[in-house]
Amino acid sequence: MLEKLNSCGDDFIPSYLHPLFGANNDAEMFSQMVWISFFYTLSVALSMALFPAPYGRYSSSKYGFLLPAKIAWITQESPSFIMPVILLLTTSSAFWNSTVNKMLLIGFIIHYVNRSIIFPLCARGNEDTPFIPYISAMAFSIFNGFMQGHYLLNYYLYDEQWLTSPQFIIGFTMFCVGMAINIHSDQQLIHLRKPGETGYKMPVGGLFEYVTAPNFFAEIIEWTGFAIASCSPPAAVFAFFSTVFLCYRAWHHHHFYLKKFDNYPRSRKIIIPFVF
Ligand SMILES: NC(=O)c1ccc[n+]([C@@H]2O[C@H](COP(=O)([O-])OP(=O)(O)OC[C@H]3O[C@@H](n4cnc5c(N)ncnc54)[C@H](OP(=O)(O)O)[C@@H]3O)[C@@H](O)[C@H]2O)c1
Under which main EC class is this enzyme filed (predicted)? Predict the structure, then answer.
């Protein structure tokens, strides 16, 4: 039974996904997926230069019917960890035995269990999510969850020496530290509102004294660390996407606060302490 389940993913990928990407093998498919992610990132950069991503404080029914924010976050983000779990159960996942492959994939899954379940359940946001950003986020989660999961489970094997290499130690440390600061900063923002309160307050304390968006800064460190630790093209293009998306979002938030609060500290940077 388990063997049958294992083989169905191993058959499905070459039979359906390789042709979908015009590829003959995994190497060609990953190459196409990385290019698609790259061009998608450029299109996101272009649109966010013109207007903010329409969710949270910028939510608007111009972008489709509105879904409750908690349900939207849970269902749009959870494919990011569900895809690797499906791959683990339905493909041979030969590289799951490698310590490095396992650490990277578990790190990725932990991040997305927090992002998809814990973060939205804690959030006290009141703005619903329009359908277009919702469905784009969900498509991205499916695509990226598959790309990262398949790469680590079935495509690239890291040997035990990689575990003690400077790239892995530095990158994985950045990933863990980034994740801790990201979660802490998100919690600081969430707790600006008391339960039932609405509206936006000026964030103060900790890293918020230096930048408008330490949660985004930390997430960029996290995915840059993941890319360094894995030296993989799928991780690198995801770090690129996160950097572009979150820098623009931080820029929009910064201008939102400058407009909203007359006393917003002028010395506070947007996203990189002391720099930008
Ligand atoms: N890797 C990626 O590409 C990527 C992309 C997007 C997001 N993310 C991550 O997902 C997380 C959430 O992203 P986000 O864009 O929703 O972040 P956000 O705009 O900073 O909001 C985070 C939470 O804090 C609340 N909040 C923010 N500022 C507030 C203020 N001044 N007063 C009161 N409440 C405030 C928000 O409520 P409202 O919802 O009501 O605004 C929301 O619940 C972040 O950790 C981010 O790094 C990652």
Answer: oxidoreductase
